[in-house]
Amino acid sequence: MTRIVSLIASATEIVHALEMGTFQVGRSHECDFPTSVSSLPICTEPTFPTSGNSREIDRRVKDTLRKALSVYDVFEEVLEQLGPTHIITQTQCEVCAVSLKDVERAVGKRLSCQPKIVSLQPDALDDVWNDMRLVADSLGIERKGEELVENLKQRMHRISGRTQAASKRPRVVCIEWLEPLMTAGNWMPELVEMAGAENLLGETGKHSSWISWEELSQSDPDVLVVLPCGFDMKRTREEMYWLTDRSEWSSLKAVKSGRVYLTDGHQYFNRPGPRLVESLQILAEILHPEVFDTDFEGIGWQRLG
User: Fold this and answer.
1) Does CATH number 3.40.50.1980 belong to domain 171-303?
2) What pTM, to 2 d.p., does this model score?
3) Assuming Cys at both sites, which of 38, 49, 57, 160 could form a disulfide with 194, CB separation 3.0 to 4.6 Å?
4) Model pLDDT, residue 114
5) Class assignment of domain 4-150?
6) How many CB atoms lie within 10 A of CB 103?
7) What is the band of 24 on the pLDDT scale with cuts at 50, 70, 90?
8) Where are the domains positioned within the chain?
9) Residue 155 above 60 pLDDT?
């Protein structure tokens, strides 16, 4: 019988979108959607405290990686008890989620069941679709994988098509970390373009990159979308002082025009899974309020105000 352990929040969402949620027996500490997974055993935890502000978290992560240590612990004992047939992990980012190395280390040490390890690498939007197919193929439900990808693509196409009615194509910067400053890469530039805007600074298919305040000031975006990795809107708002206290802040065009938006990066933009469709919808609402209803306002985004 299939027994799935997902060690990435996005993979848990993929498993459930493939209608295989009843076969999931374990999760990572970050898997929280759908809410039904909260009852599953937790198989991971960070190796450092995640409390504190953006600068402190960044320092802890970098110190951990500098020492060639893992950012996450995998609970071998829990995995042994669960006896999974499949473990889903990733190789895209050692900071964002449990890595393939972490899982291989745990499996090699303790597990008698020798599960199939499915490793995802979502660098760009096409990779997200391929990862969905990979999960489906590993579970023997190839057709469901193709159907899911096609459905999500069609939904995105409908949203993107509506942006053609917009009168303007704003220039956008997406901020993925507050201190130090980081701009969003990977699939985010594609989502911005699909939402009828011009993406600045971040590059499609490449990791999010550190930027200087000089670079942000020179780009001077029409719209600033803030989506820190792992932060919800409340926590993002609490840490906006890293931006708003800077002398350069008030001179930005987006600030002058009141077009700075906070989003729930943790639930939407940071997760390369099915809810990237909702992420695109959120961007479309933010960028083109004359075309789109604000269905996700207060849920997935809010104006800094």
Assistant:
1) yes
2) 0.92
3) 160
4) 83
5) alpha beta
6) 26
7) very high
8) 4-150, 171-303
9) yes
Shared fold status for 4-150 and 171-303: yes
The single-letter code of the amino acid at 62 is K
Mean pLDDT of the chain: 91
Provide, rounded to the nearest whole percent, the portion of the chain with pLDDT above 70. Answer: 90
Q: Contact 8/29 with Cβ under 8 angstroms? A: no
